[in-house]
Amino acid sequence: MSRSTDLPTTKVVRLLKVAFEELWAERPPADGTPYPQAVAEVAVRQIGGAKWASITRASAGRFWTEVATHETARLADELQYTYASGPCVDAIRDDSVHQLRDVHHAGRRWPDFAKRAGTDLGVGSVASCSMVVLPVEDGQAQSSLNVYSDIPKAFDDTAMRYVQTLARYGEFLALVTDDRYRIHHLRQALASNREIGIAIGMLMARRRVTREQAFDLLRIASQHTNRKLRDIATQVVDTGMLPSPPARSVDGEDTTVVP
């Protein structure tokens, strides 16, 4: 099946964007945003009949599954890599959309994969579409979005439109909807830095020390009280005072010093 030339409706794009926003609201990205995983999860949420989803990457003739919402999707992908044949493999090779409507009536196209997927994994139907992905360092990786159902003929025309739209724009939509979280964290960081800067200025004026010495006072107080630097800075701004020195144990050592 060739890639459709119809542009996705504004409604479909809008609904997918909302789906990403809902996903991020439930589980904000941290330590590197998992855009491919988000795309796969939204596929399962939004595509009618979808049970599992995955994303295949390919480079230099090698195929691998980057993310999967369930082990079943990963195993179904690996069957296709083993046979060098199947909807996801052909979608990448042809830069197209491929659908296996019913694994029990696959005909001659993907007989080995269809039989194993249905018998061993409980897959009923498959839809795969080549993806437009965010740039990679070497610029060579190709990808496909793979959506699986446990029932035959699960994906109607509407579902296939979602598959194609998500494959084309999914990672971009994930990036765009994550911008608000990036902005939120940036604002938090700027607020913390501003608070620290004010505290340093207050200590410089009150104690007649250099900028570096004032920062060291904050740092030492943070270590000795086991509190974050920005919290110490906030206390200085609010009270004009550094925290009281930690209590001393009998042997004279600070009891709250962090190694």
Automatic annotation (TrEMBL):
Transmembrane segments: none annotated. Residues 176-237 form the ANTAR domain. It comes from the Bacteria. GO terms for molecular function: RNA binding. The keyword Transcription regulation applies. Gene3D superfamilies: 3.30.450.40, Winged helix-like DNA-binding domain superfamily/Winged helix DNA-binding domain (1.10.10.10). Keywords: Transcription, Transcription regulation. Residues 240-259 are annotated as: Disordered. InterPro entries: ANTAR, CheY-like_superfamily, GAF-like_dom_sf, WH-like_DNA-bd_sf. The keyword Transcription applies. This is ANTAR domain-containing protein. It comes from Actinopolymorpha singaporensis.
